[in-house]
Each structure stands twice: as structure tokens, then as C-alpha cells.
Design goal:
It is built from 11 helices and 2 strands. With about 200 residues, it is mainly α. A two-stranded antiparallel ribbon has the order 1-2. Helix 2 packs antiparallel against helix 3. The longest helix is centred in the N-terminal third of the chain and has 21 residues. It is globular, with a radius of gyration of 16 Å.
């Protein structure tokens, strides 16, 4: 289950001032988090429309994939994936809860060394995901999240390099992440019958 569009719009309106204040506190542009959510949602909707997935569902899942960011920013030792999962499950939105978890983990990469989060939270996420069936919506939000960097839509390579620099991730993970990214891109290129970079006007 996921929110209806009116429910999603109300939830987003409630989030806006909180996100704005969190970004200001972190010396970020006030709208950067909101722009990321909206970019992921818009990309997901556009790809969904081209490859036969439900556009509204894709949009809403994209909009709230990082819902746990508020908790992560205000509660020590939390991970936005598991926090978002818990919060969405409490609201009864199990399909959103699922993408809150799955969007961070491609190709079963769960090594805590790759993440700047508590190892126990990464292990918990891996355990939860092991009970789930990964579907095209999970893959779609993974792809769209990894093409949204700040206020821009970028290539997988640009986003991965940005994350490696931002979180000081060991360079040996770059090749593994890129290989997974290329498989993910090919999956949606084939499903859409065209290059998704062209579809999204990235290149």
C-alpha cells in the first residue's frame, strides 16, 4: 500500500518546513532535499510512463524514498533507510517502507564499510530485505535516486563519484558500484526501448 496522491501531497507539505530548517542547520541550500525528492519522483514517473509501470505509484514511491532522512538528521546513530521503513510501516504504507530500504542497496552490496552508518543498521536492513521480493519499482527508485544529485539529474558515474567524495568511501567500491549501475541502466534501457539518459535529457 502507498499514499493516495492527495495524502502524498499533504505529507509532503508537512515535511517541507522541517526539511528546510534541517538544510539551513547543515549550511545547505534550503530546498536541496525537497528538490532531490521531487527529481527522483519526476524521473520515476517519466520512466514508468515509458516502460508500462504505474506512473502515480512510481511518482509517490520516489517522493518518499528518503523519508527517514528527518530522523537520521535529528536522532544519533540512525540510518534513513531503516528509519523510513519503520515510519512508513507505522503509517501502513508498506510499499513505501520497502523502497525506503531497498533504494540504498544495489546488487546485494551490504558491506558496512561502504556506508557511513551504524553497521548494525546496515545489517538490519539486509535482514529485512532478505525477506522481500525485489521488483521493478525497487529497481526504478534505485536508478532514479542514483541519477539525482543535489538539484541536478546526472549520470550514474557522476553520482557515484560524488558519493565517494562526499562520504570518503573506499575507492575499491567504485568499480563494483559502477558495474551494478550499468546493469541497472541496461535493464531500464531495454525495458523502455531507449537510452534513459536521452529520455531524461541528461545527455
Amino acid at each position: 500500500m502507498y499514499p493516495t496522491l492527495p495524502e502524498a501531497q499533504k505529507l509532503l507539505e508537512d515535511m517541507k518546513p522541517v526539511l528546510r530548517n534541517l538544510n539551513i542547520a547543515k549550511n545547505k541550500a534550503p530546498e536541496v532535499s525537497l528538490q532531490h525528492y521531487q527529481n527522483v519522483a519526476a524521473c520515476a514517473q517519466k520512466i514508468a510512463a515509458t516502460c508500462g509501470l504505474n506512473e502515480e505509484k512510481a511518482y509517490i514511491l520516489g517522493l518518499f524514498h528518503d523519508y527517514g532522512e528527518i530522523t537520521e538528521s535529528t536522532v544519533p546513530h540512525t540510518f534513513h533507510g531503516t528509519a523510513g521503513y519503520d515510519e512508513m510501516m507505522r503509517m501502513g504504507y508498506d510499499e513505501v517502507a520497502k523502497v525506503c530500504l531497498t533504494h540504498s542497496f544495489w546488487e546485494d552490496i551490504y558491506d558496512p564499510a561502504y556506508f557511513s552508518y551504524e553497521a548494525k543498521e546496515i545489517r538490519r536492513a539486509a535482514e529485512l530485505i532478505s525477506t522481500m521480493k525485489i521488483d521493478d519499482y525497487d529497481r526504478l527508485i534505485q536508478a532514479c535516486d542514483m541519477m539525482s544529485q543535489g538539484k541536478k539529474i546526472v549520470t550514474f558515474e557522476q553520482r557515484i563519484d560524488g558519493l565517494i567524495g562526499k562520504y570518503n568511501i573506499p575507492q575499491q567500491y567504485r568499480a563494483r558500484k559502477l558495474e551494478a549501475a550499468h546493469r541497472l541502466k541496461k535493464f531500464f534501457d531495454d525495458k523502455c526501448g531507449q537510452d534513459i539518459y536521452v529520455l531524461l535529457e541528461i545527455v
